[in-house]
Amino acid sequence: VTAEKAGFDHFMLKEIYDQPKAYRDTMGSRIAPDGKRVTLNELTITPEAIRNISRVHIVACGTAFHAGMVGKYVIEKMARIPVETDVASEYRYRSPIITKDTLVIVVSQSGETADTLAALREAKRCGAHVLAITNVVGSSVAREANDIITTWAGPEIAVASTKAYTSQLIGFYLLGLHLAQTLGTQTPEEIAEVIAAMKELPAQVSEILEQAEALKVVAEEMAKHDNLFFIGRGLDYAVALEGSLKLKEISYIHSEAYAAGELKHGTLALIEDDIPVIALATQHELLEKTVSNIKEVKARGAKVLGIAVEGETELQKSVDSTFIIPKTLDVLTPALSVIPLQLLSYYASLARGNDVDKPRNLAKSVTVE
Ligand code: AGP
């Protein structure tokens, strides 16, 4: 088992460090050599069928659902098709409107999650085209879907999903670009710009991983608290949800993720002296608004760690400490900003003496509904 961990203390840490390779492998040959187009040759859905898509449903559980929240944003922005996201255990029971023109995207690392599989079957029964983003070739989800985008993250052993999530993000970026190319909703220049920035991501993840020691110190402080908050707007909110789930799952510290603008509608009542707040502020258009939400928690005594993009100076004035991620396009930031959150969870779990790879009460693959 030690050998499989490649010298790392835990599978989770190894899998966090596998991410630059997982990004490269998942992009792989799906980017044309000239960097101007994506080539998702594995898809069977025709350009005509893509032009007929009236709506997209993204259905998944847990971390895969959080990747789907990013996917919604990416597809709506790049392809201008309306997207709804559903937790798989809720999907079937709300009588979703599924037609032949609906593209249903199911996201699952294992490809065996019972609720996700049931959602897939219901979507197929209603005549939708089902596309799966999954990490396990030959899994039930992969076998039953009409189309598959395989994430090449390699086996994920730790219960807490890390490299599967980020590879799912890469899958959504590729799909968003593919839809945009087909529909003409992005110019060739815009597409080339996103691809060029995507190619930078693996090296940028490595840069973040070099800061692990600094995050360990922050995590050890966090581990002394019983409650904390993650806040963010837009894509940062989706990443906040994932950061909060990861922390709860392995450190057992209670945390909540809030859309930063929603705090004042109730949650602000929970902010008291010294409570740690992790504020993601990577979206340029939303920065000013996020900063004013940070001021709201600071005024109530919170200790704020900001996650910001290189070159951002405004945020640093309003937080207690900052973790800087390398510069990328706003739409791609989740693929970088989640990395420090993964490391914070890992080190907080370690500081609390928990079984990092096998947290209590949880299974890697949830095959019951
Ligand atoms: C992630 O850290 C969790 N262990 C969990 O939320 C997981 O993502 C969820 O159970 C879905 O699993 P799947 O991707 O294999 O379908």
UniProtKB/TrEMBL annotation:
Name of the encoding gene: glmS_3
Gene Ontology MF terms: glutamine-fructose-6-phosphate transaminase (isomerizing) activity
Subcellular location: Cytoplasm
Residues of the SIS domain: 46-185, 218-359
Enzyme Commission numbers on file: 2.6.1.16
Primary location: cytoplasm
Superkingdom as given in the UniProt entry: Bacteria
Uppermost EC category: transferase
Record-annotated active site: K364 (for fru-6p isomerization activity)
Keywords from the named record: Aminotransferase, Cytoplasm, Glutamine amidotransferase, Repeat, Transferase
Job description of the protein: Catalyzes the first step in hexosamine metabolism, converting fructose-6P into glucosamine-6P using glutamine as a nitrogen source.
Subunit-level organization: Homodimer.
Organism encoding this protein: Paenibacillus allorhizoplanae
Protein name: Glutamine--fructose-6-phosphate aminotransferase [isomerizing]
Reactions performed catalytically: D-fructose 6-phosphate + L-glutamine = D-glucosamine 6-phosphate + L-glutamate
